[in-house]
Amino acid sequence: MVTTGVSNDRRGQVGIGTLIIFIAMVLVATIAAGALIHTAGTLESQAQATGEESAQQVSSGLVVFSSVGEVSADGTIETVEITVGPTPGSGAIDLESLVVDYTGAGSGGYEEVHADDIRDIEGTVLRSGSDRATIVLEDVSLEAGDDAHVTLMTSEGLETSTELVVPYELEAGETVSL
Length: 178
Fold this sequence. Notes:
Layout lengths: L7 H52 L2 E10 L5 E10 L6 E2 L4 E6 L13 E2 L5 E2 L6 E10 L4 E7 L5 E7 L9 E3 L1
Antiparallel strand pairs: 1-2, 1-10, 2-7, 3-6, 4-8, 5-7, 8-9
InterPro entries: Flagellin/pilin_N_arc, Flagellin_arc-type
Main location: other
GO biological process, one term: archaeal or bacterial-type flagellum-dependent cell motility
């Protein structure tokens, strides 16, 4: 019989040590995989929420179709009428809670628009793409060559901005596009 110099007891200890290291590696890999799966799930839900929010912002809100002012007898524009409608694919927009930020010449500022300031619709809700509303801003005191900035913010926090630029020549009684 040939002896190799390594006892059978020693070979068994090396095998058990290797098995313990293998089991430890499997446990570490399992924990790492669980953490990766959890992170991937969290990122997926955040991405889905962000996508839905982005789609809502793109497909909701107001479009400004026109803005006009009537020139008073003293040659100034005291009232501005801004005609708006919902963007295509938008849900219902309640104009009762619309916030208007008016900045520019003669700006006294508007905090919110009331039902009395809105014309051309039944109630104050724009329900379909064909609905239009005229928002009336009074006491703006715009003169020839003035400009102003109007931001309309819906209750969902969506903003629509428009610039009002008054022509350099105004004639009393005329209605001018701004």
